[in-house]
Amino acid sequence: MFFPVPDFKGFDFFPHNTRLPFMRYKGICLTLSILFMALSLGLYYTRGLNYGVDFKGGSLIEMQSKNGPADLHDIRTKLNALGVGNVQIQSFGADTDVLIRVEQQPGGEAEQQVAMKKVVDTLGDGYTQRRIEVVGPAVSSELRRTGVIAVFSSILAIIVYVWFRFEWQFAAGCVIALLHDVLVTVGLFSLLQLDFDLSIVAALLTILGYSVNDSVVVSDRIRENLRKYKRMNLDELLNVSINETLSRTILTGMTAIAGILALLIFGGEVIRNFSFAMLFGIVIGTYSSIFIAAPLLDYLGVRRDNVGHALKAKETPPAKAKAAQKT
Amino acid sequence: MLHFDRWKIVLIVLTCLAGVVFTLPNFFSKETVEHWPSWVPHRQLPLGLDLRGGAHLLLAMDTNELEKDWLTTLRDDARKQLREAKIGFSALSIAGNSVQVKISKPEDLDKAYVALKKLVQPIGNAILGTGGNDIAVDKTPPDVITLRPTEQGIQHRVSSAASAAIETVNRRVNAMGTAESTVVRQGNDRILVQFPGLQDTKQLKDLIGQTAKLTFHTVHPTVTAEEAKQTRVPLGYKIYPSGEGEGGRSYVLQETPVVSGEDLVDAQPGFDSRTNEPIISFRFNQSGARKFGNFTKDNVGSPFAIVLDDKVLSAPVVREPILGGSGQISGSFTVDSATTLAVQLRSGALPTKLTIVEERTVGPSLGADSIAAGKLAGLIGCLLTGILTIVAYGTFGIFAVIGLLVHGFLIVGAMTIIGTTLTLPGIAGFVLTIGMAVDANVLIYERIREELRTGKTPIAAIEQGFQRAFITIFDSQLTTLAAAIIMFWLGSGPIRGFAVTLTIGILTSVFSAVTVTRLLVVLWLKAAKSKGRVVEVPV
């Protein structure tokens, strides 16, 4: 039989059989994580988030100058004279492109339209409209609410699933890791005052998915090893499990980051913040499954006698079971 | 795990081919695809407004106004009922969110109660137990009766008003000449208008920004607005302000109109033959023509008023009976406003004013830029992932990349068949699923390496690798799926597009990574064995 692909071996990125003492640093890592979470919460309450129009209401107008670079100073003077409140003007991607944000107008839905129209008319014929987003107070408060609900119900759905498939300790570790990821990402957005809009909520949800994916892979290995090494102490067992899955963790992280870097660099201005959140989230999600979810199990303890009762019998091949008895 | 029945192989190959076939039209321009023979799939992925440019307007109905209108009708109906039943009343007014009647003689209270009860209408489904009435009638002895719309009644009103509004908005939007626009209900009291390709939303907003309730009223023969304001407005009459450009005059008009816009069958913009001003000519249906004819016959020489949305457009004097059922309206129109109003009148009045609560417009240039950026990022992202995978796993890496290609074709193919619109977040979702789909392969291959290190034979290691990794893949993908489904359920607009891609991507990635790659590995094993060489796993 002919097979058109030549045989060649891959390059092993990461040394196997590592014995990195992750668990030795669990105290420091957990303390650091708690510190970061506290810091993020603090930032959120003091500095706040730079909400985009989706959540704050108001208008976002992207214009492109027809002749040469846009004169930000000129635009600023003109728009500040309009009396539509705080107007933010920034260059967006190319120097011909300007992004204008008009704060939510007092009054109601119709006033937002009026303010937007004023700005567009003031800029006049020298500019083409690239994008206009006007969100009234009713919609922005709804989007805020559903955004929060979406994040928390995702976490809830994930916990229920993990609880169902594993033990409650795994679910508890997972949820704290997930909360950590969300909080720290939100904290970063607060620190850098990046636009926090609907797409960032989508990013948060994806980060949750990725982080739990990572935690589940490690948990799966822990569950398997709990059956394999019945007498190994938990601390060491967790460490072995993390080490065994480390090459996978790193390689998958690398491919995911490769994709997101492409989005960040070439994906355009519109999804830049989204890509940035994702990039940060992948890193933090990987960190949290190794340094938070797994070490927490050590503190919470796991029942060793009938671990894996949820698994069907055929998933434990006899050969493996015998091997487990020997160890 | 390492055996494939022949029919399974056929099925897998067919699935992959289907993915390719359904994806293919997306690589060509619309014109090229149209020339293809009819048995080839033609369907292309519809692009979202953010990629092709267009306007998205979310409109909300004014529910307060609806309630107020309803109370007014209720008050008029109550008056009619009491008159028909010949029951005297000393007061009839709207108080808060109810209508209150004060009966002149307390002994008539029960009689009045029975009469007013006739106004109650059942709504909902009695069989399903959701039945109820639209209003509640209560009597408070000695002489007061209250009519109050129920919560359910209001819901029902709003809901049917929304349906009516959608039809009207649809007719108005269609008058702008695009078949591709969509008008759909969102929630109970909102309407979403999507208009691909539209950049300047002014005309669209003008068209839907006005209720366009046209009515023709009798002008009070003697009392002027100034007099009425100083003394009192005669019973059954009301003061109406005039519209812009009419010098701010007000008129005292009979509240019940002679004829209304509902009786119009046509309205067209035109020009007055004498003054050359823009006008609107209209035509009534039979009953409208009769009512209007009778009215003009009886009122030659006296003025009547044409009222649009409670503002007087003009108040001409009837010069001769208009029996043909057609006429014209003048009233300081511009060509644009006459055209807009004609469309509005033809499409019928909206049940209530619509406010724009959300607007998102993307110009065609940004859309094109986003497509280009999305394509480039997608291509580079896939390329990087592919290179990494091949470098890491050699021959098996190539299998994984073939699996990824299948995954890509299947996502796009599935989205094309379902007709999901592709949005910029959708492209981001696509790139992400590529990165995540590799995870399944990574899990399998790392596991094979691990099993090999424990001294297993290559075939056993491969078998174990696929088997053991599958449990993990299943668990990890299912949790991501949970997040994606919640995004779809709660998300709006951009989040939804992202969630759809992610969901489809998770499903196809399991197929491509687990099934397709495994098939390739099995075929490779067979080929190696048939050559009689020692199998060495190239991972």
How would you describe what is shown here?
The complex is a heterodimer of chains A (327) and B (539). Chain A has 327 residues and is of the alpha+beta class. Chain A has two domains: 22-48 and 140-326, Multidrug efflux transporter AcrB transmembrane domain (Multidrug efflux transporter AcrB transmembrane fold); 58-135, Alpha-Beta Plaits, CATH 3.30.70. Chain A contains ten helices and six strands. Chain A has a four-stranded antiparallel sheet. Chain A has a two-stranded parallel ribbon with strand order 1-6. In chain A, helix 5 packs antiparallel against helix 6. With 539 residues, chain B is of the alpha+beta class. Chain B is built from 14 helices and 19 strands. In chain B, the strands form six sheets. In chain B, strands 8-9-1-19 form a four-stranded antiparallel sheet. Chain B has a four-stranded antiparallel sheet with strand order 2-3-7-6. Chain B has a four-stranded antiparallel sheet with strand order 13-10-16-17. In chain B, strand 14 (264-271) and strand 15 form a beta hairpin. In chain B, helix 12 (424-453) runs parallel beside helix 14. Classes of the chains: A alpha+beta (327), B alpha+beta (539). At the A-B interface, helix 4, strand 5, helix 5, helix 7 and helix 8 of A face strand 19, helix 11, helix 12, helix 13 and helix 14 of B.
